[in-house]
Design a protein that fits this description.
Length: about 425
């Protein structure tokens, strides 16, 4: 049998061993952090074609008290845990203020090196390092790949390209990592175009959209749920980190011209007090509810009961919340940025607005209400965006990366 034939046989017969590598991964202290990374891995494992372990570094911090904010929360993350049947390691890396942009990839790689070495020593001879988020995670993964002689697949998500690559030093490191990678993926065509424009190799980038978990996110009994959640007006839902980039403030401001509309905001983050102050200033406190961060099972209830999801962000890669809402039968109003126009491509999905302003949000909501889609049609639209296609494509990339790294001479001996 030739080496090429044996490679082909291996690609179909041998289960892959994957090492998922990302700082964007849930842990016991932050169960919602990077949940999309875990979701993608869970669907890959469900195929039965691979096994996986996760290395998800977290910043080192000596104090775990809540007064220390995000760093205190990270300090409470366990060194090792198991989630959805997958073993996860959380090595600590040093994150220094001001210089972290330049040192983070090296600090993360250094912190993870001993964990990877121990896994190999214990017999988990992983085939591929699957890195999520290009900087610093992807750069750190490329460093580790070179050190351990393992192929690396790096996924770009959005901010890592749209924002971080504007820094010349980070851009050089990201471009270097893309050259070392066996494959690069991105969540949408728009992000790929940006990456090529910034100097990456077009042929080496594969767009693979995120899917939506159609079993988890599904319609609820809308009338019953609206009564339980006290939704007695046309209700908008705004979901995401409480930060200016997500545009919650635009949705709040739009309420002054939408007098019969209520708003519920799901998420946590540094802007909560500012947003609460804005609500008081505008006098819309009786129509705005802050829900805090919600687990996905509870978020499904709000998706299914709300009249529309509004995402007034000023930049996005691929916003998972859009398809999550649609899968629950709820249409969206969203800014036409990043991959969002690739998600909202039908009147059944919802309405796009040109830019994130209160006026545009107001007009978008009015447009949606004037031609409101059938909930079943919205759900049907989402059903074409499950995880199966993306999962199969990612597995093909993993196998190609793993078996292309095997020298022909080794197989022909």
């Amino acid at each position: 049998m030739s080496a090429a034939e044996l490679k082909g046989l291996l690609q179909t017969a041998m289960p892959l061993k994957i090492l998922t590598f990302s700082t964007l991964y849930p842990n016991a202290a932050k169960p919602h952090h990077g949940i999309f990374t875990e979701t993608a891995l869970r669907h890959q494992i469900a195929t039965g074609e691979l096994e996986a372990k996760v290395v998800a570094p977290v910043p080192w911090f000596p104090f775990s008290h809540e007064i220390f904010g995000e760093y205190g929360v990270f300090a409470r993350a366990p060194a090792r845990e198991t989630r959805v049947g997958v073993e996860i390691f959380h090595p600590r890396y040093v994150a220094l203020p001001k210089v972290n942009m330049y040192l983070a990839p090296f600090s993360i790689a250094h912190s993870a090196k001993s964990v990877l070495g121990r896994l190999l020593d214990e017999g988990y001879d992983f085939d591929v390092i699957d890195a999520h988020y290009f900087f610093p995670d992807g750069v750190a993964a490329a460093l580790l790949g070179k050190y351990f002689g393992k192929p690396v697949v790096i996924s770009a998500l959005g901010t890592d390209v749209n924002v971080i690559m504007k820094n010349p030093t980070a851009r050089k490191m990201i471009l270097w990592a893309s050259e070392q990678a066996a494959s690069v993926t991105t969540v949408c065509q728009s992000l790929k175009a940006t990456m090529v424009g910034l100097g990456m190799n077009d042929a080496g980038i594969t767009p693979l959209r995120n899917g939506v978990d159609l079993e988890l996110f599904k319609p609820v009994n809308r009338l019953t749920m609206r009564k339980r959640l006290e939704m007695d007006r046309f209700t908008l839902l705004s979901v995401g980190h409480l930060h200016a980039v997500k545009g919650h403030h635009h949705v709040i401001a739009a309420l002054k011209d939408l007098p019969d509309v209520a708003l519920m905001i799901a998420g946590s983050g540094p802007d909560r007090k500012r947003l609460e102050a804005q609500v008081l200033t505008l006098g819309v406190g009786d129509r705005v509810t802050f829900l805090g961060a919600l687990p996905q099972e509870q978020l499904r209830e709000y998706y299914g009961a709300a009249d529309a999801l509004v995402l007034a962000s000023d930049r996005e890669g691929w916003a998972n919340v859009l398809l999550e809402a649609m899968a629950c039968g709820t249409p969206v109003v969203a800014t036409a940025v990043g991959g969002t126009p690739e998600v909202v491509r039908s009147s059944a999905a919802g309405v796009l607005i040109a830019s994130p302003t209160p006026e545009n949000v107001t007009e978008g909501v009015r447009c949606l209400r004037a031609s409101y889609p059938d909930h079943a049609a919205t759900r049907a639209y989402a059903e074409a965006h499950g995880w199966a296609e993306t999962t199969r494509a990612k597995l093909r990339l993993f196998r190609h990366a793993a078996h292309s790294a095997i020298p022909d001479g080794v197989l022909s001996r």
